[in-house]
Amino acid sequence: MRKGLSCIGLWLCLLLIIGCSNSDSQPENVEVYLEANTDRVLLKEEGGTAYINIASNTRWTILVENDEIPVIDLDVTPLAGDGDGTIKITYGREINKVQCEHATLIFYYYSEGKRVSKEVILTRQENDGNKDEEGWKTFTTFAKATNSFPATFKTMDGYKLIPTAISIFSTPGDVYYIAGQYKDSMFDIEKKEIHLELLSDPVCISGLSIGFESVDAYPSNAPFHSSNYNEVKPVLFDEHTIIIPMFFWVASTTDAIQEELKRHSFMLVYDSNGNSDSNLGLCLLHNVSDDEYRIRTLYTVQYCAFDIASAISRFESEKGNKPSRMTIEYKVNSLSDRLEDARIEKYTLDYKFQ
């Protein structure tokens, strides 16, 4: 089972995009649209080139997810456009013969002031028509490991996930990102159990620490790109675990992204100054270890799970009660990777475990 030096990217896998675009001005009563000629591109074993045709009447950007079972030498151009366009995709030969190499292109645009997304899957695996007829359902979720081997997991809402692949190992207590599929016959509602076929290895997102010294005692030399918490938000998996999406600047193309990600580390710090009688204050820090100067003009997102049991315990000993909410403070710069020009933002969520 894979575990990163700081945290492992998901999303749901690697995500790269050029900037965030603001909502586009459109004439009143004109419906904004973006359509692709396909939602699935089959990649050849020997590598090659593919194209996606876009029909649109607005500006759009593309986020490239290519981290979990990556497609090597993947290049997508352009990563932004206005109106109709053609996306060129070049990619290398298949390396991983055991697991399905795949990537996702996420198109973003604005409609009625809201950010809208559309996905196109790049995959080495052909559609299985028989599975579609049999009613297979695909899903992604976060789940905490409950057994190491054979691996089993439990979701936030209490469902037990039992992979059919018995060779999977996990570390009990760690949180994983899971992509799988199942049929109705594999779903026991009364027992709240799902036997599932994994679409890829579960990705561990745990292993990050909580700091209790002053915020200044910890290294932090980089801002976050943005919060984007209108679409994906920090969430309490349970009373002791919080999952936070990290949007941050990177300086790498997809073929070298793993080396770039190793330079980034994150820490959540208990902030006594940000506490009140009912609010637990936390500071989210981002640090980059560089052996040379790099200009970072792209950004990515990773999901990271923090064990906050010690922070809850410290708060309870100081205040005599558990918090009713939590506030996360972090520094954001959506224009560049300069910490000096960053602004402070905060995100508050309810803590309902009393």
TrEMBL record:
<dbReference type="InterPro" id="IPR038179">
    <property type="entry name" value="NigD-like_N_sf"/>
</dbReference>
<feature type="signal peptide">
    <location>
        <begin position="1"/>
        <end position="25"/>
    </location>
</feature>
<keyword id="KW-0732">Signal</keyword>
<protein>
    <recommendedName>
        <fullName>BACON domain-containing protein</fullName>
    </recommendedName>
</protein>
